[in-house]
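mind reviewing both lines:
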Amino acid sequence: MKENNKHLTTSWGAPVGDNQNSMTAGYRGPTLIQDVHLIEKLAHFNRERVPERVVHAKGGGAHGYFEVTNDLTNYTKASFLSEVGKRTPLFIRFSTVAGENGSADTLRDPRGFAVKFYTDEGNYDIVGNNTPVFFIRDAIKFPDFIHTQKRDPKTHLKNPTAVWDFWSLSPESLHQVTILMSDRGIPATFRHMHGFGSHTFKWTNEAGEGVWIKYHFKTDQGVKNLTADVAEQLAGENPDYHIEDLQNAIKNGDFPSWTLYVQIMPLEDANTYRFDPFDVTKVWSQKDYPLIEVGKMVLNRNPENYFAEVEQATFSPGTLVPGIDVSPDKMLQGRLFAYGDAHRHRVGTNHQLLPINRPRVDVNHYQRDGAMRFDENGGGSTYYEPNSFGGPTETPEAKQATYPVQGTVDSVTYDHNDHYTQAGDLYRLMTDGEKTRLIENIVAAMKPVEKEEIKLRQIGHFYKADPDYGLRVAAGLGLQVPEEVKNK
C-alpha cells in the first residue's frame, strides 16, 4: 500500500526545495556550506550511532508571541509575516557569552539574544546578540577567539593577556570592543537591552525578488545599563539577578516587549556601499537605510522547567523558512554549520524532537534512529528517497533564492579593511561622561596584561579610531602612543 503523499521537510519542519542536488557555486563550482539541508542530512547520518553531549552556558528564557504590525509582503514571502495582526508563538533565550553555568549575570560580556518562532511553515530562528556587530568576521577565527574568553588551560584562570593579545592582533574587533567596554557592556536586565540579528540576511518575495536585510529588536522598556561598581556588587549579592528579574516581571504581569525593525538594502547596493554589507563587524547607517517596523514581540509566560525548556532549547541561524535566505557573510556561513553541529553534540542528534524545539507543524523526512529517539521513529514507512511508494517529496518553490558568485576559489579576506571609521564615529557620539567611563573600563581591563607590546598595539588601534581615544587610554596605562602610529 502506498503512503499518503506528503511534502518533504527539514527536521525543523520547513519544506525542502530540492533533495536531489546540493547547492554549488555555479555548474562546476564547489559545494556550499550554506546548503543547510545537505549539512543536516550528512551530520545527522554521522551521528546515528555515536551520541555526544556537552553542557551549555548560563542563560534565561521565556515564552511569548510575535505580532505583525506592518505589511512587508512586497519584500518577503515568509508566511509568519504574511498579514498584519498575525501572531506566531515563540521562545526566547538570553545568555552571557563567555561565562560558565554558575557565573554571575552582571559580568561585562555580550548577551545572546536568540528567538525561535514556531511558524506555520516550520521553525525559524534569529540567533543574535544585544550588539549589532561582532568581534570577528570570519568563522575560521571563532574557536581561537572563544579560547581567549575561556579559562587558561594551565592556570584555569581567566587570562586578560590572551584577550587583549587576540584583540590587538585582530583590529576588526575594535568596533565591538568599544561597545563592550562602554556603558552598553553591562545591561541592567535582559528586558532593558536591544537585540540584533547582527548578520545580513536575504528576504525574497513571491515573485522571487530579493533584498538584503538586518534585524533590530528595540526594547520597549528603554535601554538601561549598570555601572561597573553596581554590576560587581550585584555579582556578589545576587549572581542570578537577570534571570530572576525576567521571571519576576513576567510572573507579576509586567510583560516585556520589543519592537522588531528591519533595514532593507537593494541587492545592487551591496556592490557599491562604502562598507562591505556582509561584514558583521560593521553596521549600515540608518540614514542610508532607515529602520522599518515589522512587528511586536511580547514575553508573557515563564518556563515550567528550566532544564527541559531553557537548557535544552537549541537555536541555529540555519533554521530557516521560505522567504528568508542567507547572505555571503563569512561569519554567518560558518555558523550555519557550527550551531546545528553543537546541538547534535550537546543535546543529541534528535534534539529537534524535544518539546521546546519541536515545530508546530508536521515533520516529514527520512532521518532515522540515533540516541534518544523517543517518537515512533518513522514506524514502518519508507526510509529513503527517491522512492516508488509515495513518500515525502520536495517542494520546488521552497528552494533558497539564488544570487550570483564569481572569482577564484581561495582563502581570502574581505575587500574592505577599514576597522577604525565606525569605532571612531561611535566614540565621537558619546557624551563626555560616557567617554570617561569607557576609558576607565578599558584601562582597568588592560592593566593586568603582561606584555607592554600588546598594550601599545591596542593603544594604536584606539588612536587610529580617534586620537583622543588612544591618548586617553595610553595616559590611563602610563604609556605613550607609539610614534609610528602618530606619524601615519
About this structure: Residues 49-56 have pLDDT under 50 and may be disordered. Residues 36-135+185-358 form a domain with the Catalase HpII,  Chain A, domain 1 fold (CATH 2.40.180.10).
